[in-house]
Amino acid sequence: DTTVKQNPRYKLARVGKPVNLICSQTMNHDTMYWYQKKPNQAPKLLLFYYDKILNREADTFEKFQSSRPNNSFCSLYIGSAGLEYSAMYLCASSRRGGQDTQYFGPGTRLLVL
Amino acid sequence: QQKVQQSPESLSVPEGGMASFNCTSSDRNFQYFWWYRQHSGEGPKALMSIFSDGDKKEGRFTAHLNKASLHVSLHIRDSQPSDSALYFCAASDYQGGRALIFGTGTTVSVSP
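Above: the input entities. Below: the structure tokens describing the complete assembly.
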């Protein structure tokens, strides 16, 4: 089973409110990623966990938080949503290494109003 | 500047025809390439990877890499309507645990 699941599939949030997105995988992958994708733009890496070590991109460091309570689950947390957070959020997992296939979930579409 | 650039943005091919599109990395550190395909309503799925110079063929799909120019192309032979999708090129630096740098994608439409 190469399934990555994401919940919810659609999320409506109000400006200034927190948002929590969930991702799970059962492939025992040691690395899990979160990407943000806006229309007509490339998916952009936000952060990734290798095992229990969190790596956040420099330009999104303060905007997103994440937790990984166990190997299978990973969350993406926005403390105070702004209009600019409206996007598709893609979760992926892989074994560590640039030559390993990343498996993506279907994404969560977040709309902030 | 986008590190991974794709062209064209979109193309249309007749069923049974050949679809070809391109990708270039502007960073010599990112020289390991992937092609991902995304159908509407789904997440991207890996089609194939290519890490060495030359051609790599998987079924109807052939990727070609020129490492000197960091240019990679994907060719779809005998295109089917089910090949209609958004195709992403992605590059990695194989440093272990590093994620992919994606291009903006090429939308392929295959008409019956």
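Note for the figure: The CA atoms of residues 75 and 98 of chain A lie 22 Å apart.
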